[in-house]
């Protein structure tokens, strides 16, 4: 049985959750531990923390956050953003993160993927890919870096095959065309990637409704769906998401 | 002796053991990450974690001498628990590492999960009980647990299988024999269900301590 995962994504700056999470009766909307525990209790299958800390000398706050979350919350969590070296990955994994995701640094130096995979296992090596449609790319999609600002000239499907070969255990695929639009996942991109690889694919970018989560799995063929705002701003609960998915015939872990 | 049973989590330099330690602490143990042979001998329960791949785990166990410590604990009748790759190394060997011997506590092989499925299985899945082992005491069906693995032990004659999951067919999810428990899934990452399983092990360790 393939069971789809529902994954809330939290942005973190210097160890604090930013861009607000509107849970009722939450004491501290910036506390990653409290929010993670809350999402665990609500039935989230995993969590992704995206570290947007700008200055590298404040990165130790992210390591401390990983430790604090791992102390209290017993579901898997991934930390991504700003991981440039094997040492960066090691610090976060030792602190208690289950997976790290690499993006720009992997494009710049693909061996980073194999280094992390070899030392810690493929299961903790997530490659995040920001893709944008491009008439110049053979697959129609090009890989971008630096949060979607920088073109790489690399074809998305070629990159996906490459990172699988290098030992990635999972792909976190974000459509930069859809990110923030609330128009739904880029389903064609998602299904192309999800059917091209033998490792799990998390769909990301564009969720604005519960039906979008359903489509990500049924049409996008994704193994997991990631969303931020629809959960954080109290529009929908994890339970509502899973109920809708189950009604659509998608196996999910009930909340 | 304190009220909390001492659970030694074998620390042989592999991966993230922080969650396992915190999980056992939440479950009521005095849980220590340790490579200290004296402490391991004194422990009421012993846990062999493991992530990544079979060969590096076996190599690290050999390098640290914790392979012998694990086998002594297995033979001591104190509760012993292998988790994920820490389960797999209890078997004779693995498809993942031809020619590398496991600890051989269970006399069969670990195989790639067969069929046209994504590997790793990286998801929550339902445990189907086989028999009535105390590993799963206090849990209502369906029991959901978190898996991350590409290989799993052979079914054998299934007499030691505690639970299976369905992933392109039945896949061994947990085994147990005498004092040895082993889980292919991650109880320390399986939310309330996983903490109950860890608590069951802590209870067994406490019982063993008073004998």
Question: What report would you give on this structure?
Answer:
The complex is a heterodimer of chains A (255) and B (211). Chain A contains 10 helices and 11 strands. An 8-stranded parallel β-barrel of chain A has the order 1-3-4-5-6-9-10-11, surrounded by 8 helices. The radius of gyration of chain A is 17 Å and the shape is globular. In chain A, helix 2 (60-72) runs parallel beside helix 3 (86-95) and helix 8 packs across helix 10. In chain A, strand 4, helix 3 (86-95) and strand 5 (99-102) form a beta-alpha-beta unit. The longest helix of chain A has 13 residues, at 60-72. With 255 residues, chain A is α/β, with parallel strands linked by helices. With 211 residues, chain B is an alpha/beta fold. Helices cover 28% and strands 31% of the residues of chain B. Chain B has helices spanning 18-26, 37-42, 54-64, 66-75, 85-88, 191-210; strands at residues 6-10, 30-34, 45-48, 80-83, 91-94, 106-112, 121-129, 143-149, 151-153, 161-166, 170-177, 180-183. Chain B has a 9-stranded mixed β-sheet, with helices on both faces. In chain B, strands 5-6-9 form a 3-stranded mixed β-sheet, with no helix packed on it. In chain B, a hairpin with a 2-residue loop joins strand 11 (170-177) and strand 12 (180-183). The two termini of chain B are 13 Å apart. In chain B, 56% of the residues are buried. The model of chain B has no long low-confidence stretch (mean pLDDT 95). Chain A binds chain B through residues 1-5, 40, 45, 67, 70-72, 74-76, 93-98, 119-124, 169-170, 198-200, 223-224, 253-254, and chain B through 15-16, 18-19, 22-23, 26, 51-53, 117-120, 122-126, 144, 146, 148-150, 165-167, 186, 188-191, 194-195.
């Amino acid at each position: 049985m393939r069971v789809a995962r529902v994954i809330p994504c939290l942005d973190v700056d210097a160890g604090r959750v930013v861009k607000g999470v509107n849970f009722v009766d939450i004491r501290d909307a910036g506390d990653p531990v409290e929010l993670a525990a809350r999402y665990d209790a609500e039935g989230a299958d995993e969590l992704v923390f995206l570290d947007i800390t700008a200055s590298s000398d404040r990165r130790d706050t992210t390591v401390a956050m990983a430790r604090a979350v791992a102390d209290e919350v017993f579901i898997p969590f991934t930390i991504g953003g700003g991981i440039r070296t094997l040492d960066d990955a090691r610090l976060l994994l030792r602190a208690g993160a289950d997976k790290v995701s690499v993006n720009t640094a992997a494009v710049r130096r693909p061996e980073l993927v194999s280094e992390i995979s070899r030392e810690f296992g493929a299961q903790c090596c997530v490659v995040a890919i920001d893709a944008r449609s491009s008439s110049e790319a053979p697959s129609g999609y090009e890989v971008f870096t630096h949060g979607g600002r920088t073109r790489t000239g690399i074809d998305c499907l070629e990159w996906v095959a490459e990172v699988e070969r290098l030992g990635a255990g999972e792909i976190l695929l974000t459509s930069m065309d859809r990110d923030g639009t609330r128009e739904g996942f880029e389903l064609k991109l998602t299904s192309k990637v999800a059917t091209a690889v033998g490792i799990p694919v998390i769909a990301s970018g564009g969720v604005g409704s519960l039906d979008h989560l359903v489509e990500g799995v049924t049409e996008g063929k994704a193994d997991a769906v990631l969303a931020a705002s629809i959960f954080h701003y109290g529009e929908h609960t994890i339970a509502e998401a899973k109920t809708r998915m189950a009604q659509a015939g998608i196996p999910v872990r009930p909340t | 002796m304190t009220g909390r049973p001492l659970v030694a989590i074998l620390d042989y330099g592999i991966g993230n053991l922080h969650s396992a330690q915190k999980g056992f602490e939440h479950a009521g143990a005095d849980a220590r990450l340790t490579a200290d042979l004296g402490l391991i001998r004194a422990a009421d329960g012993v846990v062999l974690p493991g992530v990544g791949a079979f060969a590096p785990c076996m190599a690290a166990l050999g390098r640290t001498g914790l392979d012998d410590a694990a086998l002594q604990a297995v033979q001591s009748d104190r509760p012993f628990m292998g988790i994920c790759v820490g389960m797999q190394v209890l078997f004779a060997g693995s498809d993942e590492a031809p020619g590398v011997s496991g600890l051989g506590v269970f006399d069969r092989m670990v195989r790639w999960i067969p069929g046209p499925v994504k590997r790793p299985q990286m998801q929550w899945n339902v445990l189907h009980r086989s028999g009535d082992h105390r590993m799963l005491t206090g849990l209502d069906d369906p029991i959901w647990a978190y898996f991350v693995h590409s290989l799993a032990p052979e079914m054998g004659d299934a007499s030691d299988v505690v639970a299976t999951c369905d992933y392109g067919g039945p896949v061994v999810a947990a085994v147990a024999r005498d004092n040895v428990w082993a889980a292919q899934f991650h109880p320390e990452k399986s939310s309330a269900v996983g903490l109950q399983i860890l608590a069951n092990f802590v209870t067994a360790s406490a019982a063993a301590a008073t004998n």
